[in-house]
Amino acid sequence: MDALVDAFVHDVKQIPGERFEIYRNGWEGQIGMALLDAVYSKQTQYRTKRGKGLLPRLLAFHGKHEPARSDLRELLKLSETELQDILGNGVTNGRTKASAALEAARKLVGAEVYTHEQYDHQNPSHRSAYLTVHGLGPVTHNYFGMLLGYPDTKPDTWIVRAVQRVADAEKLGLVVKPKLARTVVTEAHDITKLGKTVTHMDHAIWLTERARRPLDQE
Hints:
Layout: H1 2-12, H2 31-40, H3 54-64, H4 66-70, H5 72-75, H6 80-87, E1 91-92, E2 95-96, H7 97-110, H8 124-131, H9 138-147, H10 157-169, H11 178-192, H12 198-210
Antiparallel strand pairs: 1-2
C-alpha cells in the first residue's frame, strides 16, 4: 500500500498545476441538482466534443425546473416521465435512473432532508436513505456529497484507471477497486496538499486520465 501511495504521489505531481484549480464546487446549495447529477452520472459521459452528454441535459433541467433545483419536495412533484424527457432514459441495475432519483428523493424527504441545509453527508440515516435505493451505491453517494461541497473523491472508472495504471507501472500485482482508489487519492492529497481539497485533486486526476484518449472514443 505504501509503495502504491508513494508512486501515485509522484504521478500526481506531474499533473499541470492549473488543473487543480478547475473544480468549481458542483451544485452547492442545490440538493435537487446534486442528486440528479449523482444518479445520472453512473456510466455516462458528462460531456463530449460534440456538445452532448449529461451536462447539457442537467443545464436544461436547471433552466426549466427552478424550484426542484434546491428542494427535494419540489423535485418529487415531477414524474418519472418528466425527468426522462430532459435527462434521458438511462438505467441502473435494471431500473430507470429517473425512478432511482425519485426514490432517493422520497427517502431523503422521509429522513427530513428537504434542502441542502438539512443534509449531513456523515449522518447515518441520510446515508442510508441514499444507499438503500436499488441501483445506487457508495461511489455515487460519495459524488453526491462532493457536489454539495463535502470534500471527498469519487472513485469512478477514470480514478480507478489512474490508480491501476500506476500500480501496473510499478508491477505491484494489484487489482485496484474503488475503495482502494479512494484511499490512495485521499492519502496522496494528505501528503501533497495539491488542490484546495481532495475533491479538487480528484477532478484534476479525472481530467488528466480522460485526456489520455479522445472523449468521443469512450
